[in-house]
Specification:
Layout (H helix, E strand, L loop, with lengths): L1 E8 L17 E5 L5 H6 L1 H15 L1 H4 L13 H25 L4 E5 L3 E4 L2 E3 L5 E9 L3 E3 L7 H4 L16 E5 L3 H12 L3 E5 L11 H14 L1 E3 L3 E8 L2 E8 L2 E7 L1 E4 L3 E3 L32 E3 L10 H16 L14 E3 L5 E5 L2 H6 L5 E6 L4 H6 L5 E6 L6 E7 L3 H4 L1 H8 L4 H6 L10 H9 L4
Parallel strand pairs: 1-2, 1-6, 2-3, 6-16, 8-9, 8-14, 9-10
Antiparallel strand pairs: 4-5, 5-6, 7-15, 11-12, 12-13, 17-18, 18-21, 19-20, 20-21
């Protein structure tokens, strides 16, 4: 068996670890799929390229109230799809080629690996290897919904829906989280009739309750949204997919040409048989790590979706930097910082959030105050004629420290960054509001006004 100094499993964020500082290390990189991981190939990057195109396609719907007459004559799906993957596929191929040919100290194994003993890995290529150190960055995969008949009927996930040969006339989206709502926005904007099936009573239920309620209200005006609906059986009749639902209203059936399953993702730890090497798992299948991204086994680290409760690329990148440092500086390890993890939802409207929701603050018994500001009441909101978006801030009334922020509306994931900075560097709401200039009449005034409204002690 060949022995390495370091083995990295996964070429998403894990691929960024091995740089010129590892030139004298004997390294193996193991990848079961396409180089670049979820974000590059089937996640954040291609989806946002589709989202931007969808935003452009959706502009005629709101143009009339501004005195502009616009019409959408149609979209050229093959061109939209090929613009996206015409850029992404060469990047993935280039990353693979660079690792295969450009690093004399790196050996690449392409196969579904799994552990067969302590620090012993079957690479899935017919070769078994060992190493002093392992980094498990194997990501996650879509959950297959527990719906009778779904395997026989066939379904799409985020991993193949963006490469459809042609646009369907009707799409059923099973799920109510950010993946489901982003794809609902994309395909509805391209003229597809979208039915979104949610098991819960609200879309985006993990968001602040007011944000989720507003989003659900707006989405229900654009898509056929079925709330409190449990999918129990699916069948194909004369080429049409028929999804049978149980709801408080009784049995219902929704129909479509394709079924998109977007009900969550599962860590890939089980595919690797990590318990065979002594690595412990949480009850949900995530690898257990400490604040330094170390597993229960000395010399084995994990990062990203395979171990983190935050299935977010910026979290995986942060954790990769922590692991990289700790590999290079074993005598001076550092901790990951997960205090203020933000996220964005790139649907319509967009959402940006960081910190506690109001319901979380309430459940934890934390003393807090809130303030909200509508887009409609700032100058740039007038310009956009936005009547539905708002920002909501949550703060400690005694210290003025921000505990959470939640925005729904145009450019929300961009606007939230200002609050992330304030929370990360301990800037109080008062100092943030009064200690700097705010450009008038730009959109950040949404936050300025919300900050000034906070009823602090």
């Amino acid at each position: 068996m060949r022995h390495f100094d370091l083995v990295v499993i996964g070429t998403g964020s894990g691929n960024s670890i091995v740089d010129e500082r590892f030139a004298d290390w004997d390294v193996a990189i193991v990848e079961k799929g396409v180089f670049g991981g979820t974000c590059l190939n089937v996640g954040c990057i291609p989806t946002k390229m589709f989202v931007h195109t969808a935003d452009v396609a959706a502009t005629p719907a709101g143009a009339a109230r501004l005195g502009v007459d616009e019409e959408l004559h149609g979209v050229r799906w093959p061109e939209i799809r090929d613009r996206v993957f015409g850029r992404i596929d060469p990047i993935a191929a280039g990353g693979r080629r660079w690792r295969m040919e450009g690093n004399a100290n790196v050996t690449v194994y392409e196969g579904q690996a799994h552990f067969i003993g302590p620090k012993t890995l079957d690479t899935g290529t017919g070769e078994i290897i060992t190493a002093d150190r392992f980094v498990i960055a194997a990501g996650s995969r879509p959950v297959v919904p527990d719906v009778a008949g779904i395997e026989e009927v066939g379904f799409l996930t985020n991993e193949d829906v963006m490469r459809l040969d042609e646009l369907p006339a009707r799409m059923i989206v099973l799920g109510s989280g950010f993946v489901a709502t982003e794809f609902a926005h994309v395909f509805a904007s391209f003229g597809v009739e979208v039915t979104l099936v949610a098991r819960s009573g609200v879309l985006l239920r993990h968001e602040d309750e007011e944000i989720a309620a507003r989003f659900t209200e707006l989405a229900s005006k654009k898509w056929d949204v079925r709330l409190n609906a449990k999918a129990v059986r699916v069948e194909r009749v004369d080429g049409t997919i028929r999804l049978h639902l149980e709801t408080p209203r009784g049995a219902e059936v929704v129909e479509g040409d394709v079924l998109l399953a977007a009900v969550g993702r599962i860590p890939n730890a089980d595919l690797l048989d990590v318990e065979a090497t002594g690595v412990a798992l949480h009850s949900d299948g995530r690898i257990v790590v400490d604040e330094k991204q170390r597993t229960a086994v000395d010399g084995i680290w994990a990062l990203g979706d395979v171990s983190s409760e935050h299935q977010l690329k910026h979290v995986a990148n942060h954790e990769a930097r922590i692991v990289q440092h700790n590999l290079l500086h074993a005598d001076a390890p550092i901790d990951a910082d997960h205090r203020f993890v933000p996220h964005g939802v790139f649907s319509s409207p967009q959402i940006g959030a960081v910190g506690l929701t109001e319901q979380e603050a309430r459940e934890r018994g934390i003393r807090y105050v809130t303030a909200s500001q509508d887009y409609a009441d700032i100058a740039y909101g007038w310009a956009m004629e936005d009547t539905t978006g708002f920002a909501k801030l949550i703060a400690d009334p005694a210290t003025g420290q921000l505990l959470g922020a939640h925005i729904i509306g145009p450019q929300a994931p961009t606007l939230i960054q200002l609050v992330i900075q304030a929370m990360s560097f301990g800037i109080s709401a008062r100092a943030l509001a009064r200690g700097q200039y705010w450009i008038h009449p730009a959109m950040p005034e949404l936050l300025e006004n919300a900050l000034l409204k906070l009823p602090l002690d």
